[in-house]
Amino acid sequence: MTTSTPLLERTERAPLPEHHRSWTGRAAAALATPGGAVYVLVVALLVATVLANPNFGDPGVVIRFLGRTAPIAIAAIGQYYVIVSGEFDLSMGAVVAAQVVMAGNLIGEDESRILPVTLLMLAVGVLIGVLNGLGTTLLGVPSFIVTLGMMLALGGLVDHLTGGAATGNPADSFREIGRGGIEDVPVVDVIPYPLIILAVLGALASWSMRRPFGRSLVAAGDNPDAARVSGSSLWWLKTRAFVISSLSATVAGIILVGYAGVHPSVGQGYEFTAITAVVLGGVVLGGGRGWVLSAAAGAVALELLFVLLTALGVESTWRATVQGLIIIAAVAVAGRAWQRGRRPRRTGSSSATSSRHLTHHQPTPGTTTGDN
Q1: SS3 of 189, please?
Q2: Using the 8-state DSSP alphabet, how is residue 111 labeled?
Q3: Residue 137 phi, psi (nearest 5)
Q4: Is the distance from CB of 67 to CB of 273 less than 8 angstroms?
Q5: What are phi and psi of 232, to 5 degrees?
Q6: Burial annotation 125-147 (CB, 10 A radius, 16+ → b, else e)
Q7: Which residues are listed as membrane-spanning (predicted)?
Q8: Handedness of CA 292, 155, 150, 335 (dihedral sign)
Q9: Contact 260, 311 (CB under 8 A)
Q10: Where do the domains of the chain lie, and which CATH numbers do they carry?
């Protein structure tokens, strides 16, 4: 009597995806992606800026530069949530201006109003985000139109209340949030409060993108239909993304009051600067690909580029032109790079054919998802 060989032993098993590379191999693979390449760009721009202006090599100068960059980096983090979900938020600059004017006129010189007005500003930020989110998801109006309308509405309201001129002056203790810091620190002399706020929000953002909410948000941007079938509530996911975006603009506005003052022009163009930073960080317009911390790194790279151009004697009027070219180039490069990363690997074994669909939809964590 002959014993039959079990089916599993007779069938050649398909190779499983290999994710056991060393940390150096994974780091090299990450740097080869658009989201990782932005860190290389930051280092290259920093070196070039120091060569063009040796004074920029002082640690204290660099730390103050990062403090001034914190508001746009925070705005870029908020914009990331919306873009990675497949939407846009064009109301950021108007939200910043509205919050700045609100702080200047409601707080005044009365320090006892700082806490209640700050809470009110955060509540207004939540309300704006909810309106943007519900208008996009439940009403079915494209986010480009909804947030454009919100931008115009808020801008008109600010102009009406201020007459286009600076109004109000909040207490110095409130302005310290944006222009103060921890002093007498060795080497760097001072650690700006905005940089501390950016570090805390960056850590929270990275943590949130590793949670089910973050993974579902990336999935919704990559394939909304598949995300809907899997049970994700798209309207609630995207509405939360818009709320985070508006709250980040609110925090940026609170910081900007410290050194930019109270003027309706504060925050002008912030939405486009934030979008530029996000795409420079390798995030794909249309959603589904990119890292949240790379969006913040994109803001640092963008500001470093402007400092370098200034050091080289390039007129500031070229700034908008540079931003436009960066958006076009970064979108093209990032889209192609992420697309190449999604292609299934070819194997020599014909038995691996059945596993290709699985490996195609199971990217290495942190390589094409929002885990970093």
Answers
A1: strand
A2: G
A3: -90, -55
A4: no
A5: -75, 140
A6: bbebbebbbbbbbeeeeebeebb
A7: 28-53, 65-83, 114-131, 138-158, 190-207, 241-262, 268-285, 292-314, 320-338
A8: negative
A9: no
A10: 34-339 (1.10.3470)
Give DSSP secondary structure letters for 17-62: PP----HHHHHHHHHTSHHHHHHHHHHHHHHHHHHH-GGGGSHHHH
Residue 342 identity:
R
Amino acid at 354: S
pTM for the whole structure: 0.83
Half-sphere exposure of 269 (CA within 13 A, CB side): 8
Two structure tokens written together for 64: 């103050």
Angstrom distance (rounded) from CA 313 to CA 332: 29
Q: Under DSSP, is residue 65 helix (H, G, I), strand (E, B) or coil? A: helix
| 69-117 confidence digits (pLDDT tens) | 999 999 999 999 999 999 999 999 999 999 999 988 888 888 889 999 9
| Count of Cβ atoms closer than 10 Å to residue 311 Cβ | 17
Which residues, 6+ apart, have CB-to-CB distance to 196 below 8 Å?
A: 181, 182
Residue 161 in contact with residue 100, Cβ under 8 Å?
Answer: no
In terms of Cα–Cα distance, which of 169, 244, 197 is closest to 69? 197
3-state per-residue secondary structure call for 319-353: HHHHHHHHHHHHHHHHHHHHHHHHCCCCCCCHHHH
CA-CA-CA-CA dihedral for 49, 55, 58, 63, to nearest 10: -60
pLDDT tens-place string over residues 110-131: 888 999 999 999 999 999 999 9
- Return d(Cα 17, Cα 359) in angstroms, integer: 7
